[in-house]
Amino acid sequence: MKIKDITTYLESIAPLNYAEDFDNVGLLVGNYNTNVTGVLVTLDTLENVVDEAIEKNCNLIVSFHPIIFSGLKKLNGNNYVERVVLKAIKNDIAIYTMHTALDNSFTGVNAKICEVLGLQNKKILIPQKNTIKKLTTYVPNSAVEDVRNSLFASGAGNIGNYDNCSFNTEGYGTFKGNENSNPTIGEKGKLHTEKETLISVIFEKHQEKNILKSLFETHPYEEVAYEITLLENTHQEIGIGMIGELPEEMEEMAFLNFVKNKMQTKCIRHSKLRNKPIKKVAVLGGSGSFAIEKALQKKADIYITSDIKYHEFYKAEDKMIIADIGHYESEQFTKNLLVDILTKKFHNFAIILSDKHTNPIYYI
Predict the structure, then answer these.
(1) CB of 204 within 8 A of CB of 131?
(2) pLDDT tens per residue across span 275-326
(3) Scanning 56, 64, 269, 295, which has its CA 20 to 30 A from the CA of 330?
């Protein structure tokens, strides 16, 4: 099995196309064609994690956080990032990272938090923009069904709980090939009119390559007329953060203690209590101050995240509770999620959960 086999599967769960623009995801160290001896899954790739990979004969580390975040201008081993990269290269260990691609997956980081807290009816808190595209193409009527079904098979035409969705309009197409053409229908040098159907389908942007491949392979014309448009519609299952509901209301302090226990955190910093029961819960793993307003708009009773600054707690406005449970603590179950995902697919292969504790923050 090669690295590409594993990363292709991971990207079917969390396509890299949906990572945030500032992020650095994918294969950071290594070659996709390398044969894999074992996979070590971690939240962070530190030196001791690379040592663990060497010890356990794992030449692929799947990490949530990217060890290379901004550009490296030197590789002298003068800081922990350079030392990790040097050690990985020296020992032929590849490093693959998912970060915000997994944050924006409906079954990713925030879904795992919802699972741990037992939340129901979960929905994306902030759907990502620019995720849906539309393909329009023109097909001779004799080939319409074949082309349309091929597009559906490659992932086009899926909308929420529906698939095989398209819009079709019949009309006439005209064309005249020059002396170098090889028309499937009609003759070169002669104007031809053909009964055609306009087919319009939407698709998630990460599927574009496969959809166009299907179009070109199935369409009978030598030159395929098509256009792709980026839509402003939001995809309700691609985006960051989640909001869900508890099965039963809980009193505020009881819920905060519940969160402290379930999320295995030693400290919860929170805004003023409201003396109202908790039912609707918004969550966002990692730094989440940017989503406070969205959690308020969604009428969450409490927003659970991390890295909230002093003045940002005021934004609760007595309309909800903001709870900062710690960055590591909010994302710690992500590596368990990745192990579960990989084990279900590659159940006869060594998928190992790192036993290294990588939280840089300690409490007294």
Answers:
(1) yes
(2) 999 999 999 999 999 999 999 999 999 999 999 999 999 999 999 999 999 9
(3) 56
Q: Three-class SS of residue 211?
A: helix
Neighbour count for residue 178 (Cβ, 10 Å)? 7
Q: Token digits for 364? A: 């007294």
CA within 13 Å, CB half, 336: 10
d(CA 46, CA 302): 33
d(CA 57, CA 95): 14
Its sign, for the CA torsion 95, 96, 97, 102, is negative
Give the position of tokens 């064309």. 175
Q: What is the pLDDT of residues 89-140, one digit of tens each?
A: 999 999 999 999 999 999 999 999 999 999 999 999 999 999 999 999 999 9
Within 10 angstroms of residue 30's Cβ, the number of other Cβ atoms is 19
* Pair 209, 190: CB distance under 8 Å: no
**Amino acid sitting at position 14:** A
Contacts of 162 by beta carbon, 8 Å cutoff, 6+ apart: none
